[in-house]
Amino acid sequence: QDIAEATIIIHSVAVTPEDNERFESRDVYEITLQDAIKNAAGIIKEIEEMIASEQQ
After folding, report:
1. How far is it, in rounded angstroms, from Cα 26 to Cα 22?
2. What processes does the entry annotate via GO biological process terms (predicted)?
3. What's the pLDDT at 19?
4. Mean pLDDT of the chain
């Protein structure tokens, strides 16, 4: 249900998860766990900027 309601998916992982087909209808952004810990706000800002530029 959470996936069905999500606008975007952010994977913060060391290894790509299995069963990625469950995310096919969503935009998936894969980042390193280190980036998520050290720069969470920056990562979210980058994703917001990418989405905004895609909508123009």
Report:
1. 9
2. phosphoenolpyruvate-dependent sugar phosphotransferase system
3. 78
4. 82
